[in-house]
Amino acid sequence: MSPFNQSIFHPAVFFLTGIPGLEASHIWISIPFCCLYAIAISGNGMILFVIITESSLHEPMYYFLSMLSFTDLGLCLSTLVTMLGIFWFNAREISFDTCISQMFFIHGFTFMESSVLLAMAFDRFIAICNPLRYSMILTNSRIIKVGFAIIIRGTTALVPLLLLLKRLSFCHSHVLHHSYCFHPDVMKLSCTDTKINSAFGLAIVISTAGLDSVLILLSYVLIIRSVLSIASVEERKKAFGTCISHISAVAIFYIPMISLSLVHRFGKNAPPIVHTLIANVYLLIPPVMNPIIYSVKTKQIRKAVLKLFIPKVV
Length: 314
Description:
By secondary structure, this protein is mostly helical. The chain has 13 helices and two strands, in the order αβααβαααααααααα. Mean pLDDT is 88; it is low at 1-8.
């Protein structure tokens, strides 16, 4: 056996990365990250609570919003332990099996969030383009079925992807670029052929987030065409106003996701801190911003949240 083959092995651990070059300041850097996690967890938890407890919010639009908050919570909790462990205790080691498990949840909740955004786009399309049939189409039973379909779609494709990853051998550095396990990042460390893994991973992304983004765009083309046919300017503004929150949620989800994908594919010579910062933005900004956007832009959610702190608000 050649020396090169002897160096190929299956790793027991990987090493996560905090903020490259700023390791001495990790304790201070952890403060804004803790604030972001606190905002994301409390904000999405509050959205879920008010939707569950407030009977006036038991409508399709808010059911889909609760699904969005659930996926955002899942994303936050999937990275909370490893990220804060690095900043507080320099706990950079993560076992291969734990890394695989974390990848399952991170990518699973990411694909589920993409599906939820598509479902919300369909909700807005029906509400604006076919309002008379809205309650007939989006019944509670159908929404439950959509919820189960989102979970199944977001997780089943990941099982073969991660099994393919487990067959790889590694002989390069085991240092990852992020504070969590990300499939393309782990795959790059392998010294065996990863063409199947790369092709299968790309196929999953295209068939989930890629397809969802196209369908969301198509739904808004139809929505805009329908809104422009409305004679009243005020009615047009009102119709567009109901979509602003969702459009914002779509933007803050897809822009960081596309940016991270581009950095992994084309940014080999980019400084390590660029990979790390974009990766953290990708996972933290949507969970932080979505509750803020919907609390500010959606009157019913804003009133329900205010009632938690000011019971006299009606």
